[in-house]
Write a structure and sequence with these properties.
Strand order of the largest sheet: 2-3-4-1-5
Shape: elongated
Largest sheet: 5 strands, parallel
Radius of gyration: 35 Å
Structural class: mainly alpha
Number of strands: 8
Helix content: 55-70%
Oligomer: single chain
Distance between the termini: 108 Å
Number of helices: 34
Length: 757
């Protein structure tokens, strides 16, 4: 610092102790000004990380804790400074601007050397920097640093000691500090924080605290804001949760009496967006992302929102301010409360105007629709479909049905078809029902898209094992298609085929077979005998005849369909492969195993070569071959192949996919045929539990599984259990399928035999 004479000339008279060398000034014992942390909870991993980083001896150590506003960066820094760091002094400086840093350093100088308190601030600031440079074992917390350039001049001049920086800026620290990203609290920590503020022992779920904390995304500031409000007003967590759903804008901005109005989540994040206002695209992006799920948002969903350079810059700024997180795999994450706030209109907030939010919802819908594959039944599109479904679900949860557009309905229709092909019939029904309502309201009941949605919804009902709801809807669709589009329209032909398949599923062969014959005649006449839809229709009729036991008619039809598929589509077309497999299965049903097994092998080889080892159709073909081996009495090969198929289904489709359940059921039947009754019963019991859980009590697969378990019990001599299960199956068959259905008659026969024993 300057000479004493200067200060005397300026009228400043200093005590003698102010003239000593800065390096000889010792800090008063236990000097610190860090804020208290009475409500601090958890954070063990972050505290351990800071302990390890600051334990490094030698030169200056700089640690930057970054994260979303309200995530608890300052609380972590204060707690660590007070309770973990043993050096002296521990000094807290607001670092949101260069002038704030200078003021904080001047205050440190006054605390270290009270005799110099009368000096101008710029001199005290310089004195503090010199003191830091000539001492070690101190800690400076630079809180809420807005930019690395604001703190770098200080860091560049000091070569010893410890700096702990808190900042919303996630980027730009690589050459200055070791960065530590702070995430939200663990569930138990959030509940503990809420309970401490509430002032009584936490009753957990019974009071709705856990659910409220989850809704708040375990964000410390939001949890503290909600708990303080509840404590002061006597509001229960469940009531607060309801108020949050009904009046989100008010609840995000409100705080308890005497609370810091600047420290509500609405205010904290508005400040951040104000700082990003020079890049208006950042607000638009955030409002679009608000309509998706919080995790795994594909970057491609933002493609086309702006020219690539501008888009990249805006995304970078949002990441830099911790408003979104780049997860490193081509996806983003956004905290659920940031999303909730961004889609909640507030006329007082320029970043949350109602018109802008509505526009963002429309853009988010259009981006999802453009990204969703138009062929969701194709396995090659499944990975992308699976990545997008959570965001379709979020969009439909957040957006009211009355806001649905034609684009929304189209997106939901494709999503429902995908879910149906994944065996998630119940989920698909919900999605397709909303798609159908949207098209009905927007397009009218006679529009082809509305009719197609009706047909898909009926298919979902049928897949869910509910033919009583599916068949009337199919019949209505066919009548409407015939009346409005004509009997020869492609949608009418498709609808006729669908209704025939529904009759078949319900066991109504007398209506199914004539309708399949009519559908085949129509396809051949309108589309031509070589059209793929005609070939599919021929296969469907063959399957109906096979189901009716008319194998002498089914097998020639399968053979004809296969020949035409080879000629028209080629040896390797998926429909050709399917047709070959169907013929093999019909031959197997007819007992012609010497023809069936080689054809199954040929079909499997072709599936492996054309579609790959893990394609669902390949797994089905391998399962069919295993069943043929079982029919031929070659149980060793059958069981080995069934076990392989089950492993592959679990790996590729998941534990709960219907094909996995079916394969597990087949393996249990093979064990039973081999006399391994205990293994068979154990597996049958698991399949039944899974079917009930995934498909429901009355789904055909569930009833088949229950019937198979009853047969296994009967084989093991457990007649009382077998009879009880048979009775349960018979009751369901009568209720769902009726007295005359072949499956109902079969169960009644099995029950009579078990009772006779």
């Amino acid at each position: 610092m300057g000479s004493v004479a200067q200060y005397i000339e300026n009228g400043v008279v200093l005590p003698p102790q102010a003239y000593g060398p800065v390096s000889e000034v010792d800090a008063p014992a236990r000097l610190h000004n860090a804020p208290g942390t009475r409500l601090f909870v958890g954070r063990k991993a972050a505290l351990d990380r800071l302990d390890a980083e600051f334990a490094t001896p030698g030169d200056v150590v700089v640690q930057a804790v970054h994260g979303l506003g309200g995530v608890g960066k300052s609380a972590l820094a204060a707690h660590w400074a007070i309770h973990h760091y043993g050096g002296n002094p521990r000094w807290w400086i607001a670092a949101d601007s260069p002038s704030s840093i200078a003021t904080g350093l001047a205050q440190l100088a006054r605390a270290l050397q009270p005799a110099a308190a009368g000096l101008p601030e710029e001199i005290l600031t310089e004195w503090a920097v010199q003191w830091l440079s000539s001492h070690d074992d101190w800690l400076i917390v630079l809180d809420n640093a807005d930019h690395v350039d604001h703190v770098r001049p200080l860091l560049d001049r000091v070569g010893t000691g410890r700096f702990l920086i808190t900042t919303r800026r996630a980027t730009g620290w690589h050459s200055t500090a070791v960065a530590l990203r702070l995430d939200v609290l663990e569930e138990g920590e959030a509940i503990d924080l809420f309970a401490r503020i509430l002032g009584h022992a936490c009753p957990g779920e019974n009071d709705g605290i856990a659910r409220l904390c989850s809704e708040l995304g375990h964000l410390p500031l939001a949890v503290e804001q909600a708990a303080s409000y509840c404590a002061e007003t006597g509001t229960s967590p469940r009531t607060y949760l309801r108020m949050l759903a009904e009046s989100p804008a008010e609840m995000y901005a409100d705080t308890a009496e005497g609370g810091d109005a600047a420290r509500t989540i609405a205010r904290v994040w508005r400040i951040t967006l104000d700082r990003l206002a020079d890049t208006p695209l950042t607000g638009r992006i955030l409002r679009v992302l608000a309509w998706y799920g919080p995790d795994g948002i594909p970057r491609d969903l933002l493609t086309g929102l702006a020219p690539a350079p501008a888009l990249t810059k805006a995304i970078g700024r949002l990441i830099a301010y911790s408003m979104i997180t780049n997860t490193g795999d081509g996806t983003f994450a956004v905290h659920r409360l940031v999303q909730a706030l961004a889609r909640t209109p507030d006329p007082e907030d320029p970043h949350r105007q109602e018109e802008d939010i509505a526009q963002a919802r429309a853009v988010a819908t259009a981006q999802l629709d453009a990204a969703f594959p138009e062929t969701p039944a194709s396995p090659r599109t499944w990975p992308l479909c699976r990545a997008l479904v959570p965001h379709v679900e979020a969009l439909t949860e957040y957006a009211p049905a009355e806001s649905d557009s034609r684009t929304t309905a189209r997106l939901l229709n494709m999503t429902g078809v995908f879910l149906m092909n994944q065996g998630l019939a119940g989920h698909a029904t919900t999605v397709l029902h909303r798609a159908h309502r949207g098209r009905l309201a927007l397009l009218g009941e006679g529009h082809p898209d509305t009719l197609a949605s009706s047909n898909n919804l009926a298919s979902a009902y049928l897949s869910a094992g509910n033919p009583k709801r599916a068949i009337p809807l199919y019949e209505s669709v066919l009548a409407d298609c015939t009346r409005l589009l004509g009997g020869d329209h492609s949608l009418t032909l498709t609808s006729r085929n669908s209704l025939a398949s529904a009759y078949l599923s319900a066991g109504d062969l007398h209506r199914a077979i004539p309708l399949h014959e009519s559908a085949l005649e129509g396809c051949a006449r309108v589309l031509g005998k070589n059209h793929p839809d005609t070939l599919t229709s021929r296969n469907n009729l063959a399957y109906a005849l096979q189901s009716a036991g008319e194998l002498e008619r089914a097998i020639p039809l399968y053979e004809s369909a296969l020949d035409d598929c080879v000629r028209v589509l080629g040896e390797d077309h998926p429909d050709t492969l399917s047709s070959r497999d169907n013929l093999a299965y019909a031959l197997q049903s007819a007992g012609e195993l010497e023809r069936a097994i080689p054809l199954h092998r040929s079909a499997l080889d072709d599936y492996v070569r054309v579609l790959g080892e893990d394609h669902p159709h390949t797994l089905t073909s391998r399962n069919n071959l295993a069943t043929a081996y079982q029919s031929a009495g070659d149980l060793e090969r059958a069981i080995s192949l069934h076990e392989r198929v089950l492993d592959d289904c679990v790996r590729m489709l998941g534990e709960d996919h219907p094909d996995t359940l079916s394969t597990r059921n087949n393996l249990a039947a093979a064990y039973q045929s081999a006399g391994e009754l205990e293994r068979a019963i154990s597996l049958h019991e698991r399949v039944l539990d899974d079917c009930v859980r995934m498909l429901g009590e009355d789904h055909p697969h569930t009833l088949t599984s229950r019937n198979n378990l009853a047969a296994a019990y009967q084989s093991a001599g457990r007649l009382s259990r077998a009879i009880s299960l048979y009775e349960s199956v018979l009751e369901s068959r009568l209720r769902v399928l009726g007295r005359g259905h072949p499956d109902t008659r079969s169960v009644r026969s099995s029950l009579d035999r078990a009772r006779a024993v």
